[in-house]
């Protein structure tokens, strides 16, 4: 039996932060060890919200370089740009013809645009409206078994399943119906201000593409701490510094960190040793991050300095992706009475 196939799309939103790393990148790399894994940069989806062309290009490279730098093996995982696989938008057209407008009107992506982004029906673009149709094609073009997604994307996978079922009902068994895998225990990583780390809160720590100085001063240094006096015991319970430290340190290191913090001293057993305040704690966190990500940081810089190489890797991935998608699209087109490409 071949391993089950997993597929995930990543929107090109720029250099991933630590929340993305722990919540998405690391789990996907882990999953790739036991699955036949497809991963792509959803640049066509990115077009649904307008941005400057330079931004899209830059963000796409940054995402690709970051995933590889963090350990994604492009030989093992099929890693590609969505736009390099024209079978996907072509399949999306066919799927759009079996999905009902009423169902898409109830999709989160669209309802959000109306409710939260304050757009009117006149203003919402058709790309945004049919976002779930393209997403269904992303998934169905590869006979995907499992789609690991956050809760916010569950409905989109449901729409994808509906598209596959309806197409199968109309034309015979042509598409595999995938299942969503919802990670219930999604880690929430605290950001600089203690709220969930998120690009939209502008409270992120980015270990890639950031100079040591900026990582120390503009990121770790900006983590909000309480105003415990220097030399007094630090309360680590709801401290962002301590939470982040625990996420990246091994047990021994973390135990020592906590003992120092709770003693308020560098040497927890020596009350006359130097004070251990939030400043020192942050320096420890900074050193920990540098050490943990030293290799990844160097690899990211190396890749970003050689975009031709990133292009090559992604294009190789696209070739492998197209080999699969073209067969499946041909199956679908043939079933509908359209001559395959
Ligand atoms: N919509 C997903 C997100 O916002 C990205 C995505 C696009 C995706 N196509 C996909 C995820 C296919 C899983 C499968 O995060």
Mean pLDDT: 96
- Main sheet, how many strands, which sense, barrel? 3 strands, parallel
How much beta, percentage-wise? 5-15%
**Strand order in the largest sheet:** 1-2-3
Helix share, percent: 40-55%
Helix segment tally: 14
- The residue ranges in which pLDDT falls below 50 over 5 or more consecutive positions are none
Q: Enumerate the distinct ligands.
A: tryptophan
Indicate the overall shape. Answer: elongated
Number of strands: 5
Distance, first to last CA: 30 Å
Structural classification: mainly alpha
The H-and-E topology, N to C, reads as EHEHHEHHHHHEHEHHHHH
Q: Using only CA atoms, what is the Rg?
A: 23 Å
Describe the structure.
- With 341 residues, the protein is mainly alpha-helical.
- 52% of the residues lie in helices and 7% in strands.
- It has 14 helices and five strands.
- The protein has helices spanning 18-31, 43-46, 53-69, 87-96, 101-105, 108-115, 126-129, 131-140, 154-171, 212-219, 240-248, 251-263, 278-304, 307-336, and strands spanning 5-10, 36-41, 78-81, 146-149, 179-182.
- The strands form two sheets. The protein has a three-stranded parallel β-sheet with strand order 1-2-3, with helices on both faces. The protein has a two-stranded parallel ribbon with strand order 4-5.
- Strand 4, helix 9 and strand 5 (179-182) form a beta-alpha-beta unit.
- Helix 11 (240-248) packs across helix 13 (278-304).
- The two termini are 30 Å apart.
- It binds tryptophan.
- Tryptophan binds next to strand 1, helix 8 and strand 4.
């Amino acid at each position: 039996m071949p391993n089950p196939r997993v597929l995930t799309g990543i929107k090109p939103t720029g250099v991933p932060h630590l929340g993305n790393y722990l919540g998405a990148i690391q789990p996907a790399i882990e999953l790739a060890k036991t699955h036949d894994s497809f991963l792509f940069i959803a640049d066509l989806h990115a077009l649904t919200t307008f941005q400057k062309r330079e931004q899209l290009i830059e963000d796409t490279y940054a995402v690709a370089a970051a995933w590889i730098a963090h350990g994604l093996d492009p030989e093992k995982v099929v890693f590609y740009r969505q736009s390099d696989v024209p079978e996907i938008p072509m399949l999306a057209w066919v799927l759009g013809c079996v999905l009902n407008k009423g169902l898409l009107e109830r999709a989160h992506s669209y309802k959000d645009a109306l409710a939260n982004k304050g757009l009117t029906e006149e203003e919402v673009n058709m790309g945004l409206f049919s976002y779930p149709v393209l997403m269904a094609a992303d998934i169905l073009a590869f006979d995907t078994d499992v789609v690991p997604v956050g809760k916010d994307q569950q409905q989109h996978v449901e729409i994808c399943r509906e598209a596959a079922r309806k197409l199968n009902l109309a034309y015979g068994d042509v598409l595999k119906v995938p299942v969503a895998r919802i990670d219930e225990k999604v880690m929430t990583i605290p950001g600089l201000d203690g709220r969930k780390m998120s690009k939209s809160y502008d409270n992120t720590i980015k270990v890639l593409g950031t100079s040591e100085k900026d990582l120390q001063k503009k990121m770790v240094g900006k983590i909000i701490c309480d105003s415990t006096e220097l030399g007094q015991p630090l309360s680590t319970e709801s401290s962002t510094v301590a939470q982040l430290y625990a996420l990246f340190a091994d047990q021994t290191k973390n135990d020592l960190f906590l003992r120092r913090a709770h003693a308020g001293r560098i040497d927890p057993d020596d009350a006359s040793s130097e004070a251990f305040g939030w400043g020192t704690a942050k320096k420890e966190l900074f050193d920990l991050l540098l050490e943990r990500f030293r290799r990844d940081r160097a690899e990211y810089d190396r890749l970003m300095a050689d975009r031709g190489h990133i292009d090559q890797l992604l294009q190789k991935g696209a070739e492998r992706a197209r080999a699969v998608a073209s067969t499946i699209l041909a199956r679908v087109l043939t079933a509908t009475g359209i001559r395959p490409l």
